[in-house]
Design brief:
alpha/beta, seven-stranded parallel beta sheet, 7 strands, 11% strand, globular
């Protein structure tokens, strides 16, 4: 399974978005026409790009909707739901919806990712943040990677900026990786497309030779700090000529200093585990399943209230009979082996005296008795 979790979609015109936002709460009859729609030319371009990605071997595609600074619940419109309705279905290809929020200095005060707007983010399968300041990077690594309904599992780094606007501190990177987040590297910057709209996000990014130079320097730093752990490689490409096959992407990552297995997992196992963890946003505290206790039959013990529930009839209690003694279990007519005389007398045959000792003791005893009788007669 090869995945490209950053397939950007064209931005709709402001007139289309404003019309869709104005029709949101006017009534149920107008609710069906509130969703924005892409033009036939835009849909045809997206279909052509999907065909090429499918030909290259990708089976999981995530369409990306980008929002600058903050998400305003009054004006925000989900443009991916109507897009998936306009695309034709392809067997064996999975379509996902992704929302990316570009954070800047104004976003540090709040960018709409709160529990009050949780219903606004539930339709999206993946949430991503693009920090452009040190404070927003710290906020993305420490706060928004915790297991909540608004967890952002992707931290996309702006690698085409003239200089990375923050230092990749090991403590922040480790905290984000421990919480299950991944750091995304878009290979669109390595190609340096001159007219690629993806390179204009965030604002201030360069294109062409400058984008290539910035991308290679920043991407090497990301691989060095993360040590190849939690790296996700995506496309982020608008132009079909800049799309690359998964094996080519793996070779590109090995040039950055990552091992071959890490480069291969960057678009396979890492993406697969990321999609699985992203489903935990819809569960309680990132629990995927509800365990059930299965009690085997015959192992239930009677409870104190079972007599009342049984209609007053007492439940039979198991009786335990005492174990019979060894003497009772022995057969009656069996003859016992006679014991030796020494054993019956309770003496030890080894401790009995010899015959000579008995004689000596006997004569000595008789002489003593004669002496006592003589003294008594006197």
């Amino acid at each position: 399974m090869f995945a490209d979790l950053n397939v950007p979609v064209p931005t709709l015109l402001k007139q289309q978005l404003s019309q869709a936002a104005s029709k949101k709460g006017k009534g149920k009859q107008e609710q069906s026409g509130a969703a924005p729609s892409f033009t036939p030319a835009q849909v045809a371009a997206i279909e052509s790009r999907i065909d090429l990605l499918e030909h290259l071997g990708y089976t999981v595609l995530a369409f990306n909707q980008t929002v600058e600074r903050r998400v305003d619940p009054k004006t925000h419109v989900n443009t991916l739901d109507p897009l998936l309705g306009q695309l034709r279905k392809r067997p064996g290809v999975v379509f996902l919806k992704r929302l990316t929020i570009v954070l800047d200095e104004e976003s540090e005060k709040g960018f709409g990712l709160t529990n009050g707007n949780a219903a606004l983010f539930m339709p999206y399968d993946l949430l991503a943040l693009v920090p452009t300041t040190a404070a927003s990077f710290s906020l993305a690594c420490l706060t928004h990677t915790q297991p909540t309904p608004l967890t952002t599992h992707i931290i996309s780094l702006p690698l085409t900026l003239p200089r990375l606007p923050f230092n990749l501190r090991h403590t922040l990177v480790r905290a984000a990786l421990k919480n299950g987040a991944v750091f995304e590297i878009n290979y669109a910057g390595a190609l340096g497309g001159e007219a690629d709209p993806a390179l204009t996000i965030p604002s201030g990014s360069e294109s062409g030779a400058g984008a290539k130079r910035n991308w290679w320097a920043a991407a090497r730093e990301v691989v060095r700090v993360t040590k190849g752990k939690g790296i996700l490689v995506s496309g982020g490409v608008f132009n079909e000529a800049d799309l690359r096959a998964p094996r080519d992407v793996a070779n590109l990552v090995t040039i950055l200093g990552a091992p071959q297995d890490v480069a291969h997992n960057a678009s396979t196992k890492v993406a697969q585990s990321l999609i699985l963890r992203a489903q935990t946003r819809r569960t309680y505290r990132a629990v995927l399943s509800e365990p059930k206790v299965v009690i085997p039959e015959g192992s239930l013990m009677p409870q104190p209230g079972d007599d009342e529930r049984a209609g007053g009839q007492q439940m039979p209690t198991p009786s335990v009979e005492p174990a019979a003694s060894a003497a009772e279990d022995a057969p009656v007519n069996v003859k016992k082996r006679p014991l030796d005389q020494s054993v019956q007398a309770g003496t030890n045959p080894a401790a009995q005296p010899n015959d000579t000792e008995k004689e000596g003791r006997g004569t000595g005893g008789a002489s003593r008795k004669k002496k006592k009788n003589k003294t008594a007669a006197n």
